[in-house]
Amino acid sequence: MSGYYKDEYRYDDIINLQHHQSNKRPHMSLHDRAAQFAPFAALTGHEEAIDETARLTDKQVQLDDIQIESINQKLYEIVNGKEKERRVSITYFSPDKLKTGGSYLTDIGIVKKIDDIEHKVIMDNGIKIPMEYILDIDW
Hints:
By secondary structure, the chain is an alpha+beta fold. It contains four helices and five strands. It has helices at residues 2-6, 30-35, 46-54, 65-80; strands at 87-95, 102-115, 120-123, 128-130, 134-138. Strand 1 (87-95) and strand 2 form a beta hairpin.
């Protein structure tokens, strides 16, 4: 058997034969043929699910009555104050759309309007901040 592998003429009977082509199936392009051997992701979306689980969120801080009164006083000063165009920094909680918790954001700008019906502070850049999510206001 070891002599068979050393025989350099062992394919001489078939080496010049024409390559077989099926009459029933179309010839596959090299691109399609290579694609069938390409790696694939057996767990599509698994990596994204792991990343989402690992993403941390903050819990919303519950304010006491004194802190709420302080925020209400600052909102009152913004609406009725002498300086209507005062730049303020509002830190507020933004709930996460996918999981419990959220994150704290700070928006700096001029308060355009305070909507008492929807209980939102509308900034000059269009951001609407729900009053119940406001943590702090500075100027």
